[in-house]
Write a sequence for this structure.
């Protein structure tokens, strides 16, 4: 698949985040072993993330923008990477096939959402990426899990040669580590990841002695690395912000903090693991959920420091507060998002979810109705409105909402289960 028309990147200005939507021309369920991205202009592509949207939500946002794709760091919530997969591209990344047992399911009628971080080069550039999918006929039998160690607490003084950051995570279950994906920008020099086992022994997971931003990607172990429950995984990255670092983008060196531009810095390690027991996948998901939401708060705090009127960041902050059971803060963030942009359906949807969880069905219905009025294709709003109508005893109306949710998103298992319950009454 290729982006039908090239995107024109301006010669100068700040880094650009652009989301391109490509319909995937499959007519039946397929099983994907590998995905290969040709960036379409590697000179200006910092990285790319790939997500799958089973709904038309990403296409709707694309249609609202006159240029190819749509702008921003945030894609619709319906666009997600396949569970446990490294679906990304960085300079130097090459495609590699997964074992057939770890392939992932691609349903028919989905869109590929390709989020690209683009860097102006000093002259106008065109970008026209293409993506190849490689299939297998065998359905997967195992589901990996992906989690990250990272920090936003990065503040590297100018001239510092050995600035370091650290982070750790303790495993709640036995796992086999399949792959690792480290990430930083131009100032990083050394990267270490170490596992400290429950018996006190240590095992190195990887070391990069001379990090090169222009050659990176994920690394698969020839033999998966077994780590028992209670193992503590830690990272230690060092940075050189002096004139001795030939890759330093600042001349003379300047203070550098965490940021999304290539001239800022990051410290990340992503791990793909396979739980030893299938039922432990849910344990890993539950253990990582609050970490993910706390990380979302920190990241959107960063965005709001850059622009306090970033409506989308207020929405994402509100979502994180909601799932951390901080209702008052969630309500304040979502209301602020609506003050800044009253034509966005997502704040209404999450306010509806908040009020439904608190038992305020009248306000919940009002918010879901508002979300649907703005975006009639918001499948989750239809489904949650169906749940409200069930609680109100309005069963025929509820069934119609569940049917609409399933029409918009055939993978909505909650709507399907509730519709079946209504049929049995």
């Amino acid at each position: 698949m290729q982006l039908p028309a090239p995107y024109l990147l301006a010669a100068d200005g700040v880094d650009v985040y652009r989301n391109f939507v490509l319909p995937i021309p499959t007519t039946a369920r397929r099983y994907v072993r590998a995905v290969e991205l040709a960036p379409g202009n590697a000179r200006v592509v910092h990285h790319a993330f790939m997500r799958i949207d089973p709904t038309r939500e990403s296409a709707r946002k694309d249609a609202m923008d006159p240029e190819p794709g749509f702008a921003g760091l945030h894609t619709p919530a319906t666009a997600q990477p396949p569970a446990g997969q490294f679906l990304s591209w960085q300079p130097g990344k090459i495609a590699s096939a997964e074992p057939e047992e770890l392939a992932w399911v691609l349903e028919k009628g989905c869109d590929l959402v390709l989020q690209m971080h683009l860097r102006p080069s000093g002259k106008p550039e065109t970008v026209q990426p293409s993506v190849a999918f490689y299939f297998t006929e065998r359905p997967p039998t195992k589901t990996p899990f992906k989690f990250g160690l990272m920090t936003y607490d990065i503040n590297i003084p100018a001239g510092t040669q050995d600035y370091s950051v650290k982070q750790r995570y303790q495993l709640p279950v036995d796992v086999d580590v399949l792959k690792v994906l480290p990430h930083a920008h131009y100032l990083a020099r050394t990267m270490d990841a170490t596992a400290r086992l429950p018996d006190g022994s240590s095992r190195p997971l990887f070391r990069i002695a001379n990090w090169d931003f222009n050659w990176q990607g994920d690394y698969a172990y020839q033999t998966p690395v077994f780590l028992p429950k209670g193992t503590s995984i830690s990272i230690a990255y060092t940075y050189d912000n002096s004139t001795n670092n030939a890759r330093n983008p600042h001349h003379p060196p300047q203070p550098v903090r965490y940021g999304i531009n290539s001239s800022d810095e990051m410290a990340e390690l992503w791990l793909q693991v396979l739980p030893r027991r299938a039922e432990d996948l849910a344990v890993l998901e539950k253990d990582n959920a609050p970490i993910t939401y706390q990380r979302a708060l920190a990241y959107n705090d960063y965005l709001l420091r850059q622009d306090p009127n970033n409506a989308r960041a207020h929405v994402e902050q509100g979502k994180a507060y909601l799932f951390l059971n901080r209702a008052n803060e969630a309500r304040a963030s979502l209301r602020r998002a609506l003050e800044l942009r009253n034509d966005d359906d997502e704040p209404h949807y999450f306010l509806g979810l908040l009020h439904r969880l608190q038992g305020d069905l009248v306000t919940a219905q009002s918010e879901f109705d508002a979300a649907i009025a703005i975006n009639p294709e918001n499948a989750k709003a239809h489904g949650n409105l169906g749940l409200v109508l069930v609680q109100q005893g309005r069963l025929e109306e509820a069934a119609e909402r569940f049917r609409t949710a399933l029409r918009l998103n055939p993978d909505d298992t909650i709507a399907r289960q509730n519709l079946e319950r209504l049929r049995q009454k």
Notes: The chain has a mean pLDDT of 95.
